[in-house]
Each structure stands twice: as structure tokens, then as C-alpha cells.
């Protein structure tokens, strides 16, 4: 079911937190788009109760004009003019992850890579002391290792003992050819000094599992959900301390080698936003994520490997689990489409993906969702949890 409402009054009412049980239809809007391409949104709750959103934008993912942007949702339901957070003219700056480090410190961790080479990526950090209106220049937080890039996508969280945990994944350079993602694997970065230094802890048997999304369940244990390079199923892993993890195993939810994100609701249920699609739904296949960028392909094409690119990135779906991520019996589509993503070309509008969701719940119970819309804009949706029950 594709349930949408574009009423401006509905959006304003949602922004005021005035939803009740009868206001179950989603209210939607688009963030201002200062660039041709917009992708990889992440939401954050700010100290004053407002909502912030970061994403990356420019001409095309992998090009050096890709930078990080940030905007705040105002009380009248409109998004403020975006502020440019990063500006390195030599690197593609991607996958911003906002984190509220204190009442007066907002951070954004993000990646920076050479062209389409994720094996060169490092994690950088930009900070703001005024709620995101201005930003200190980004500095290296986690350097790349020799021949292996370090990448992020999902929010950090603070463990009970005060340590900071940042989910990460690693992009090794293949022996021949360029990075295509075949050997990527996951881990967590743990800091005991508020992010000054980090210790890496690898997730066992996680090759192909990336975008590790760590959730603290109501019983105190931890659940992680993963995107899969093989474009088969969302995978899950469990931990008692957030640092040491079980080997990932498949859920019954499909995955198309695109990002997922989940949230633990106030009532303990887990809701995941994802594309209900996989390689089984794909009629064609891309050679790599960056196959349109000059220099990102060799004269002799690399034979297809485990990483599957090009599976449809639609519909945009929410699924619900009441047993800590073991089963997902309830799901609804927020938006439907063909999800065509065999190109990242936003200038000519060929891409039609609905992807890279970010999901949070506010104190009033409302769910807030942001995601890539055709790689031309970031779409924002508010909905009441009762909508999940149909």
C-alpha cells in the first residue's frame, strides 16, 4: 500500500507534534536541494527538540564536488536553507552521520575518498557549537589503512560505561582492478576518550555485510542489521556488550545491496526502513557503483563478483519486529516505484531510486523518515506509529 499525503497543513500539524490517533496518514515534504544530486540522508534530534538532517550532494557520487550538507526543520514545518558542512575540492565527501556529543556540540562524521575508490576512504569529523548553523572544518578522525578504506553510514551510540561506539565497514583494494565491494566487511570502532582515539573490533564472518546499524534493545542486549553486497537478504547479528558480535545470519527480509536503517520504538518494537527488493528482482546488473566515472573502470572489464549492483531500489518499506529482530511479520510500503538505479546520473533524471532511509522517533511518539528520492532530493515523511498497523 502506498500511503501519502502532501497537504501543507498536514505537514505543519505534524511539525507541531499535534498528531493523534486519527492522524495516521503520512505527511511529507522535500528538503531544499542546492545541488543536482542529493543522497544518503541521516536524521538527528537536537537539544531544543528540533530535527536536523545531513546528506551529501554535488554533481555525482564519487566526483570531487560532492560535499556534506545540513538543514534543520523549523517549527512551521519548513526546512531551513542548507548549510555546506565540508568543502574538500580534491575528494568526494560522503555518508554523513550526525551525532549529538553534548548540549552544545553537534558532530558530523563523514567519509572522504578519491573518486570512485572506496579503498582510499577515511572518516572525517566536522563540529558545530551553534546547532548546525556554522561548522569547523573537517579533520581526519579515522585514517584509511594501507590498501583498505574505512567507511561509515550509521549513527554512533554511547555505551553504558560512557565509551563511544561507531559502526564501520572496511573496503579492501583487490589484487587486480579497482574497488567493487566484493571483499567488504564490518566492525565497530570504540573510543574511551570521546573520539580522540579508536580501537577497531571486527565482526566475525562478516564479508559482504556492510552498513552495520547497531540498536540497543529494551532488554539491554544489542541488535545489528546489515546491508548485503550479495543483494540477497538483510542480515542480523547480536551482542551482549555492543563490542563483541555473533557472525551475521540472514533475516527473511530481502536486501538489494542498498542501505537500511532501524529504530527501537518506545514500546520495544523494532522498525526497519529498507527496500523490499533483491538481486532476484533485477533484470540487469551494473559492473560497479562508480562505473560511470572516468577512470573507475579498466580496459578489460572485471568479471562479475559477489557484490551485486543494480537491483531495484524500491519500494521504500517499513517492517516491524516484536521479538528483537528475529521475525518481521508486519510491513507496509511508504512509497512505491520501479527503483531504477542502473545509473547515478541525476543531471538527466534517469535514476528513480527510493533509498538510503533514516528513521527516528521523537518523544511525542511520531516517526520521522528521510530518504533519497530519485537522487534529486531528500524526501521527509512524518507518520504516526499506528500507521504501521494498517
From TrEMBL:
Superkingdom field: Bacteria
Organism placement in taxonomy: Bacteria, Bacillati, Actinomycetota, Actinomycetes, Kitasatosporales
Annotated protein name in UniProt: Glycosyl hydrolase
Chain positions covered by the region annotation Disordered: 1-20
Database matches in PANTHER family: BNR/ASP-BOX REPEAT FAMILY PROTEIN (PTHR43752), BNR_ASP-BOX REPEAT FAMILY PROTEIN (PTHR43752:SF2)
Stored InterPro entries: Sialidase, Sialidase_sf
Tagged with keyword Hydrolase: yes
UniProt entry keywords in alphabetical sequence: Hydrolase
Residues covered by the Sialidase domain: 49-369
GO MF, one annotated term: hydrolase activity
Amino acid at each position: 500500500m502506498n500511503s501519502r499525503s502532501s497537504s501543507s497543513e498536514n505537514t505543519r500539524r505534524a511539525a507541531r507534534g499535534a498528531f493523534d490517533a486519527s492522524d495516521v496518514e503520512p505527511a511529507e515534504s522535500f528538503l531544499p536541494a542546492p545541488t543536482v544530486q542529493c543522497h544518503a540522508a541521516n536524521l538527528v534530534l537536537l537539544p531544543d527538540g528540533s530535527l536536523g538532517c545531513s546528506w551529501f550532494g554535488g554533481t555525482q557520487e564519487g566526483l570531487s564536488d560532492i560535499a556534506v550538507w545540513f538543514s534543520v526543520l523549523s517549527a512551521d514545518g519548513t526546512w531551513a536553507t542548507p548549510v555546506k558542512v565540508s568543502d574538500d575540492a580534491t575528494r568526494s565527501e560522503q555518508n554523513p552521520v550526525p551525532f549529538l556529543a553534548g548540549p552544545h556540540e553537534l558532530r558530523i562524521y563523514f567519509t572522504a575518498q578519491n573518486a570512485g575508490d572506496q579503498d582510499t576512504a577515511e572518516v572525517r569529523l566536522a563540529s558545530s557549537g551553534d546547532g548546525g548553523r556554522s561548522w569547523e572544518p573537517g579533520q581526519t578522525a579515522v585514517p584509511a589503512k594501507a590498501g583498505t578504506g574505512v567507511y561509515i553510514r550509521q549513527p554512533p551510540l554511547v555505551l553504558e560505561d560512557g565509551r563511544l561506539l561507531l559502526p564501520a565497514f572496511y573496503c579492501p583494494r583487490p589484487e587486480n582492478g579497482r574497488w567493487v565491494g566484493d571483499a567488504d566487511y564490518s566492525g565497530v570502532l570504540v573510543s574511551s576518550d570521546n573520539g580522540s582515539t579508536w580501537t577497531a573490533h571486527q565482526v566475525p564472518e562478516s564479508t559482504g555485510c556492510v552498513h552495520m546499524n547497531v540498536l540497543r534493545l529494551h532488554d539491554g542486549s544489542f541488535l545489528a542489521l546489515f546491508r548485503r553486497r550479495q543483494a540477497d537478504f538483510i542480515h542480523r547479528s547480536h551482542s551482549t556488550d555492543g563490542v563483541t558480535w555473533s557472525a551475521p545470519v540472514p533475516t527473511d527480509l530481502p536486501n538489494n545491496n542498498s542501505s537500511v536503517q532501524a529504530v527501537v520504538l518506545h514500546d520495544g518494537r523494532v522498525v526497519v526502513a529498507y527496500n523490499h527488493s533483491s538481486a532476484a528482482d533485477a533484470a540487469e546488473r551494473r559492473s560497479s557503483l562508480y562505473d560511470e566515472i572516468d577512470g573507475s573502470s579498466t580496459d578489460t572489464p572485471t568479471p562479475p563478483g559477489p557484490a551485486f549492483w543494480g537491483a531495484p531500489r524500491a519500494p521504500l518499506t517499513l517492517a516491524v519486529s516484536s521479538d528483537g529482530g528475529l521475525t518481521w511479520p508486519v510491513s507496509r510500503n511508504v512509497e512505491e516505484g520501479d527503483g531504477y538505479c542502473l545509473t547515478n546520473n541525476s543531471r538527466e533524471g534517469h535514476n528513480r531510486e527510493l533509498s538510503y532511509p533514516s528513521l527516528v522517533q521523537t518523544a511525542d511518539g511520531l516517526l520521522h523518515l528521510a530518504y533519497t528520492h530519485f537522487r534529486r532530493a531528500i524526501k521527509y515523511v512524518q507518520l504516526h506509529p499506528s500507521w504501521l498497523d494498517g
